[in-house]
Amino acid sequence: MTRHHPDSLSLMDYSAGNLSEPHALCIRLHLDQCSHCRSRVETLESLGAVMMDQQPKVTVSDTSFDQLLARIDSAPAEPAPVAKTLRLSPLQKLLGDDINELPWKRQLGDVSILDITEKFPGQRERVVLQKLVAGGKAPAHTHRGNETTIVLQGAFADQKGVFNQWDFVVLNEQDEHKPVAVGCEDCITLSVLSAPLKLTGTFTRMLNPFIR
């Protein structure tokens, strides 16, 4: 069951078609397994259709908008279907059927990456797959910009909790963490980065000039 979800504004941008292709892909993968967020998106789309059809146009106050977001966020979560197999349908056209067999490149310690930015032409953000071996630890780091991540396989834990398959997380310059892969399989994530991460460890920080 997914426990970490996109916020209401992200879902609203998704339903309106305002997100970049990589960000929309992350949310689409989450929605495929999260009935709660699918319901929220359907509510937003229905509301948008009603507002577009209303004549004359109705002005919605800032207070009404905030109340709407609060109602959407307070909606009870429904149990998401349990995935019996790894379902990556939106990614299959890009990567094939088995993400474990991709040409991973060892980065640091237990971390391997695969840059797939070129598969999203015209995008300014960097799009990467990251693999953390089962039981492995990623170097302590923060971010120079925003990082949107969805867990595709396995799980990882940091000071904010445990993030399982299909969980969604957004980090920024204020977040510093050291993810650890939990469970018996490698943790694989898809991340969209607006800027390079910044290593904060005593020794690894010397590698920052070489990270893009």
TrEMBL record:
<dbReference type="InterPro" id="IPR025979">
    <property type="entry name" value="ChrR-like_cupin_dom"/>
</dbReference>
<dbReference type="InterPro" id="IPR011051">
    <property type="entry name" value="RmlC_Cupin_sf"/>
</dbReference>
<protein>
    <submittedName>
        <fullName>Anti-sigma factor</fullName>
    </submittedName>
</protein>
<dbReference type="Pfam" id="PF12973">
    <property type="entry name" value="Cupin_7"/>
</dbReference>
<feature type="domain" description="ChrR-like cupin">
    <location>
        <begin position="99"/>
        <end position="190"/>
    </location>
</feature>
<dbReference type="InterPro" id="IPR041916">
    <property type="entry name" value="Anti_sigma_zinc_sf"/>
</dbReference>
<dbReference type="InterPro" id="IPR012807">
    <property type="entry name" value="Anti-sigma_ChrR"/>
</dbReference>
<dbReference type="InterPro" id="IPR014710">
    <property type="entry name" value="RmlC-like_jellyroll"/>
</dbReference>
